Amino acid sequence: MTLTAEQRRARILEVVRESGTVRVVDLAAGMGLAAVTVRRDVAALAESGQLRRSHGAVSLPGGEDAAGPGGRDLVVGILVPTIGLYFDEIIAGARAAADAAGARLVLGVSAYRPADDRAKVDQLLASGVDGLLVTPNWRPDTAPEDSEWICDLPVPTVLVERQAPPGSPFAQLDAVGSDHGHGVLLALRHLASLGHDAVLLAARTDTWTAHQVRAGYAEGVRLLGLKALPVVDIDPPGSDLDEVVSRLGGEDGARAVLVHNDQDALQLAPLLRARGLKVPDDVAVVSYDDVVAALGDPPLTAVAPPKHFVGRAALELLLGRVTEAEPSPVRHVALLPDLKIRTSCGGAAG
């Protein structure tokens, strides 16, 4: 006989009263129901205050949460290279998932100094974290093997917005990140659809994401048959934008540019206007990151990595790893960016 939602939820409460803290997967198996159905019922019971959820387990309100050692709530550490803009959204996603699961998030910031990574992780471990989300400072001039200690951490660890080099020890770690190559391809394909056969790339050189954007540009140009142009380096931020302006409409024939990141892309339109070039009438501009691109004049079309979802998915993966009864396969999760179409590339090629 098929149970109604009311009957299922009454049975769930009965089982939890008898057993104490119960994992949702075990609850579903014991009741002979689909896990998705039980999760939906548990969510409804938690919302009404009849149950307490804690990353994959349920208990009665006010009861002891056995998810962490000694019955305490789980504590998760997150190490990021900076706070503000891009990583704020990742932290927000991780925090939302932690709050929903009854876990606590502890933040560490290494300020884009690779030497700080280990010290900050040691501090997080000393605070008693049960698992770690780590965004190591991997840069083109920093060999990943310098941080192989991450592979030997005493708690489950998930890489965030970092892709393990093939064949490296890091490949044995779970990882969640944006597919930046796909994001660049979206931008180039859109510009090509507007008639641009040459797209200039202006990008940083000092971050891991910039390295991925540059690699994605080279591959995207090849796949779409666009004219390959030398990349303009913009380190530090804002430098060499005059070169970008001079190259647009110059002998390269480029009337479109992809800029990594928003901070530099926002400075480009005024410089172009000073040279008598209007966006998008004369030049199409696409930004990479989409943190503040919509605030530009004109609003910038932008590649939007799924930052919030990266943080959330990484936290959920880590909680599953911390609480699983048996080891499961390593997961490398790549989330696809979106392209937000706005005013700055609305014009066709000149």
From TrEMBL:
Keywords: DNA-binding, Transcription, Transcription regulation. GO terms for molecular function: DNA-binding transcription factor activity; transcription cis-regulatory region binding. It comes from Streptacidiphilus jiangxiensis. Residues 5-60 form the HTH deoR-type domain. The keyword DNA repair does not apply. This is DNA-binding transcriptional regulator, LacI/PurR family.
